[in-house]
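User: What would this chain look like folded?
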Amino acid sequence: MNTVKSFYSRYLERHVRIVANDDVVREISFHTGWPRNLQTGRLRDKDPSLATSVAEDLHEYLKGGDVDFRKYALDLEGFTDFETSVINEARKISRGSVMTYSELAQVSGRPRAARAVGNVMHKNVHVILVPCHRVVGKRDLGGFSSGLEVKRKLLRLEGCLKGM
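Assistant: Here's the prediction, encoded as structure tokens.
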């Protein structure tokens, strides 16, 4: 059974939604609005669920805390071997660091697959746990499914974009 938790991040100006079962994180997403009919547990609703633990760590991270999200198992069902490899390599990019799409393609075993890496990052449903915001283009920030302003804020939070 899935548990859903949410909280509002003033820093991102977004609602953060976490979906997890007992073993794996299924999804993390950002929302500017909130569907009225969505039933969700709030962060203040304390329980021992994985979703609550992730929500608490995300909240701490978004306040500037240094949190290692690699401790959480992700639901990667339906992902190809290549996509799983890209996701696993992206999870190794440490806070305060960035990697280009082509560099991530290289360490994922497909050096000519930078565009494919971009597609994997675009469909990332584990935002922040798979730090796709740390993957950038050679000449610019690249893209981000939640918008470039959110990507800039996350990189700024980690000290990567001091002047932007």
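Residues 50-62 form the longest helix (13 residues). If you want, I can go into more detail on any region.
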